[in-house]
């Protein structure tokens, strides 16, 4: 596998490289709705040209890649990725996370601030940027904590952190219980036009709950938490945004009630958006049966009706973003009794093929599905990537939509193997991933998690 | 000149331009006399002024004390720590008790908004508000106006930017009212967390970006930010506050080249104002203190004219 570290163009050395021509591809640009056969030329890290006129003809001197009518679309932007660096490098480093991302066709990852130390200071934002520049093979952006130490008490230096490069502000895996603190942070962040991304979960209601409350929890004898713990916080936050203004995103809603709150807020013209994790689009609480801790995630997997509501939300465009919520956990914290096991599932490598389940089932059309992982998160985060357009950065993936395969967790590029899709049959795989014009992953170049059926 | 048509000075709200001019003219004269060796006059001879401070203050209390003494009054400072208030007496009982001692003017500072007005309803003498909670501090606005007028000639038409903790500031509320009465253009600059609700309704343009808010200002008035408000509840840190809302040379350059730099004190150097800006040649911060005594003399003199005469 050829791994080219990402460096600013000014630092890259060597002679100018010849253009690369991707011919005979199914070009999909979710932003413009383009879905047609054609070709695309990459030069100097940018998309130099694209369109049907390039289906068969490459510019002179170009290195030609025949895409065999596979999908060529923007690389995915994953707006919720937990890493172990700094502090928990045995779970995941920026390097391993970025390899997992490249394998899964994710060309931009947005890191959560839940590290050790927490990313709540300017120097740490700077540290992440330097580490990513030197070690990661995809783009890495970091969120900063909205309260110091993610404790939900004192706001962080939102202005200075944003200036240092923090792309958004999050309280990580924890919700801010104190409404006054939440209001003040929203109010303060609004002055800097900073995006607030807030995990919605009433900590008093959820307590030590192990899973969704309902029949399955009752049968398994596990403590459950209701959906209301999520919806209450979404509703509260929306009401605050309504009085204060500002940009607010609920990153991982999991039930129809929360979606209704967001839809109503959008209808009132508020600058409110929401996302859902791939787990809540493809799995439900029944998967927990057998006390399988790889299915212990937050928010917990819900009833099938809620999963269906989430899929519908994507289809109708009411849910803006799909995230992997990639959360590497080692065996020590997962191989425990269910109630004591850690939350979280890795997902960078399976995000796209798992999402394609919705396409293959006919629930969501391809362009709409890709939009939630490319142009929508780009718009939310103010990134210029996530689209196929002349002059755009060449963050591109080539995808075979139909190739069937079985996930083998031991072959995942991620350092942690806690995948809920282990042994799952998936359909569709990434053949090639380009970041700023450089191929950072190519299928068949490595022993991947994607063993042919 | 008709004189000052009010029994009390409780607020800048309700003062008209002629009222304010009358006080500033008196204060101008007082300021001149205060620079003489012989500062004492006997306008208030035989009068009793009580300084009743429920909230600690050094400069305002000293300023009122000097003002009263220079006008020949008997001035008594009520120290709250040793008063009956600490023993549980209500504000109204304190007022009635003091009233029985037949003072002529009571100067009151209290931590609760509206407390001075409540006290004024229960006494027969004149009352001067020396600061009530986050409500009003009229003599501060008057001394600021006097300082501006002496440096700029006229207040009308000037653009005055008030920057900092507007939410908790009686100085800001007093100044906004007074400057509006004097036809100045008022801007307030603060992070949203330090702005009250509907700040524009006070008669000010609101900015959360200091660079924009200072553009073309004739006067830059900084407010004090208390330390306990920089711990993450209202503002994340001193460092961040200074970066975005502290008056340094870079931001000051947005204001007019001859803009005045003001601060009601006490200053936090390096928090809301850079040390070198505080000591800038255009800083009139020390002049504000000097004008404080003059304005308070003018207020005592004006109110005494409305008291029963001997």
Topology:
The complex is a heterodimer of chains A (453) and B (310).
Chain A lengths: L19 E10 L4 E10 L2 E6 L11 E4 L4 E4 L1 E6 L12 H11 L1 E6 L10 H14 L3 E4 L1 E2 L12 H7 L4 E2 L8 H13 L3 E3 L5 H4 L4 E2 L2 H6 L3 E2 L2 H17 L2 E4 L5 H12 L4 E6 H5 L21 H13 L4 E3 L7 H4 L16 H10 L5 H6 L3 H7 L14 E12 L17 E11 L2 E5 L7 E3 L1
Parallel strand pairs in A: 1-4, 1-5, 6-7, 7-8, 9-10, 10-11, 11-14, 12-13, 14-15, 15-16
Antiparallel strand pairs in A: 1-2, 2-3, 5-17, 17-18, 17-20, 18-19
Helix pairs in contact in A: 4-7, 7-8
Chain B lengths: L16 H18 L13 E6 L5 H12 L3 E6 L11 H10 L4 E6 L4 H6 L5 E7 L5 H15 L6 E5 L6 H12 L3 E5 L15 E3 L2 H4 L5 E4 L15 H8 L3 H4 L7 E3 L12 H4 L6 H21 L5
Helix pairs in contact in B: 1-5, 1-11, 2-11, 5-6, 5-11
Description:
The complex is a heterodimer of chains A (453) and B (310). Chain A folds into 2 domains: 2-9 and 18-73 and 392-403 and 423-452, Urease, subunit C, domain 1; 75-381, Metal-dependent hydrolases (TIM Barrel, Alpha-Beta Barrel), CATH 3.20.20. Chain A is globular and about 65 Å long. Residues 1-5 and 445-453 of chain A have low confidence and may be disordered. In chain A, strand 10 (169-170), helix 4 (179-191) and strand 11 (195-197) form a beta-alpha-beta unit. Chain A has helices spanning 94-104, 122-135, 158-164, 179-191, 203-206, 215-220, 228-244, 256-267, 278-282, 304-316, 331-334, 351-360, 366-371, 375-381, and strands at 20-29, 34-43, 46-51, 63-66, 71-74, 76-81, 106-111, 139-142, 144-145, 169-170, 195-197, 211-212, 224-225, 247-250, 272-277, 321-323, 396-407, 425-435, 438-442, 450-452. Chain A is of the alpha/beta class and 453 residues long. The longest helix of chain A has 17 residues, at 228-244. In chain B, 37% of the residues lie in helices and 15% in strands. Chain B has helices at 17-34, 59-70, 91-100, 115-120, 138-152, 170-181, 210-213, 238-245, 249-252, 275-278, 285-305; strands at residues 48-53, 74-79, 105-110, 126-132, 159-163, 185-189, 205-207, 219-222, 260-262. In chain B, the strands form 2 sheets. Chain B has a 5-stranded parallel sheet. A 4-stranded parallel sheet of chain B has the order 2-1-3-4. In chain B, helix 2 links the parallel strand 1 (48-53) and strand 2. In chain B, helix 2 crosses helix 11 and helix 5 crosses helix 11. The model of chain B has no long low-confidence stretch (mean pLDDT 94). Chain A binds chain B through residues 147-148, 153-160, 181, 184, 187-188, 190-191, 244, and chain B through 191-193, 208-209, 231-237, 239-240, 243-244.
């Amino acid at each position: 596998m050829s791994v080219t570290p990402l460096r600013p163009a000014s630092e890259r050395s060597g002679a100018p490289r010849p253009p690369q021509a991707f011919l005979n591809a199914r070009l999909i640009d979710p932003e413009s709705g383009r879905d047609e056969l054609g070709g695309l030329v990459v030069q100097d890290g940018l998309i130099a040209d694209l369109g049907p006129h390039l289906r068969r003809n490459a510019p002179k001197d170009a290195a030609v890649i025949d895409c065999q009518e596979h999908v060529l679309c923007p690389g995915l932007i994953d707006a919720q990725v937990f890493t172990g660096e700094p502090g928990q490098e045995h779970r995941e480093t920026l390097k391993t996370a970025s390899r997992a991302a490249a394998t899964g066709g994710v060309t931009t990852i947005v890191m959560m601030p839940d590290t050790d130390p927490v990313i709540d200071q300017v120097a740490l934002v700077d540290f992440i940027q330097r580490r990513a520049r030197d070690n990661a093979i995809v783009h890495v952006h970091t969120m900063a904590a909205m309260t110091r130490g993610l404790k939900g008490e004192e706001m962080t230096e939102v202005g200075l952190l944003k200036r240092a490069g923090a792309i958004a502000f999050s309280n990580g895996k924890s919700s801010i219980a104190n409404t006054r603190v939440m209001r003040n942070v929203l109010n303060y962040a609004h002055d800097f036009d900073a995006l607030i991304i807030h995990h919605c979960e009433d900590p008093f209601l959820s307590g030590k709950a192990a899973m969704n409350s309902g029949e399955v929890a009752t049968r398994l004898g596990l403590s459950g938490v209701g959906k209301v713990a999520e919806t209450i916080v979404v509703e509260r936050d929306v009401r605050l945004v309504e009085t204060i203004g500002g940009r607010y995103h609920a990153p991982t809603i999991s039930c129809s009630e929360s979606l209704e709150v967001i839809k109503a807020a959008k209808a009132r013209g508020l600058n409110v958006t929401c996302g859902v994790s791939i787990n809540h689009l493809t799995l439900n609480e029944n998967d927990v049966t057998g006390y399988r801790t790889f299915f212990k995630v937050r928010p917990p997997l819900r009833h099938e009706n809620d999963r269906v509501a989430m899929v519908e939300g994507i289809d109708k465009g009411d849910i803006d973003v799909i995230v992997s919520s990639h959360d590497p956990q080692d065996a020590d914290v997962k191989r425990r009794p269910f109630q004591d096991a850690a939350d979280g599932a890795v997902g960078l490598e399976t995000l796209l093929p798992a999402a394609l389940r919705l396409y293959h089932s006919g629930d969501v059309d391809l362009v709409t599905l890709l939009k939630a992982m490319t142009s929508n998160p780009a718009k939310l985060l103010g990134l210029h990537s996530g689209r196929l357009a002349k002059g755009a950065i060449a963050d591109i993936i080539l995808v075979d939509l139909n190739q069937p395969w079985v996930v083998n967790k031991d072959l995942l590029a991620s350092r942690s193997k806690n995948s809920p899709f282990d042994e799952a049959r998936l359909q569709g795989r990434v053949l090639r991933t380009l970041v700023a014009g450089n191929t950072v992953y190519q299928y068949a170049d490595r022993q991947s998690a994607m063993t042919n059926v | 000149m008709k004189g000052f048509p009010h029994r009390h000075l409780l607020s800048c709200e309700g003062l008209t331009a002629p009222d304010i001019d009358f006080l500033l003219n008196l204060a101008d004269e007082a300021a001149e006399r205060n620079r003489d060796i012989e500062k004492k006059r006997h306008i208030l001879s035989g009068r009793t002024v009580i300084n009743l401070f429920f909230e600690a203050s050094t400069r305002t209390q000293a300023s009122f004390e000097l003002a009263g003494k220079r006008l020949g009054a008997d001035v008594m400072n009520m120290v709250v720590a040793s008063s009956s208030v600490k023993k549980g007496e209500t504000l109204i009982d304190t007022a009635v008790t003091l009233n029985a001692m037949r003072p002529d003017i009571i100067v009151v500072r209290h931590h609760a908004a509206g407390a001075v007005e409540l006290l004024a309803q229960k006494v027969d003498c004149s009352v001067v508000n020396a600061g009530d909670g986050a409500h009003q501090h009229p003599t501060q606005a008057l001394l600021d106006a006097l300082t501006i007028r002496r440096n700029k000639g006229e207040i009308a038409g000037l653009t005055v930017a008030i920057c900092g903790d507007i939410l908790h500031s009686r100085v800001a509320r007093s100044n906004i009212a007074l400057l509006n009465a004097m036809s100045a253009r008022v801007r307030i600059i603060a992070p949203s967390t330090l702005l009250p609700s509907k700040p524009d309704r006070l008669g000010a343009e609101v900015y959360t970006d200091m660079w924009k808010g200072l553009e073309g200002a004739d006067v830059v008035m900084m407010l004090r930010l208390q330390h306990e408000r920089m711990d993450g509840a209202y503002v994340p840190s001193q460092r961040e506050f200074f970066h975005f809302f502290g008056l340094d040379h870079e931001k000051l350059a947005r204001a007019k080249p001859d803009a005045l730099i003001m601060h009601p004190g006490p200053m936090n150097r390096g928090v809301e104002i850079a040390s070198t800006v505080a000591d800038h040649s255009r800083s009139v911060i020390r002049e504000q203190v000097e004008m404080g005594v003059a304005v308070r003399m003018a207020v005592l003199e004006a109110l005494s004219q409305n008291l029963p005469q001997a």
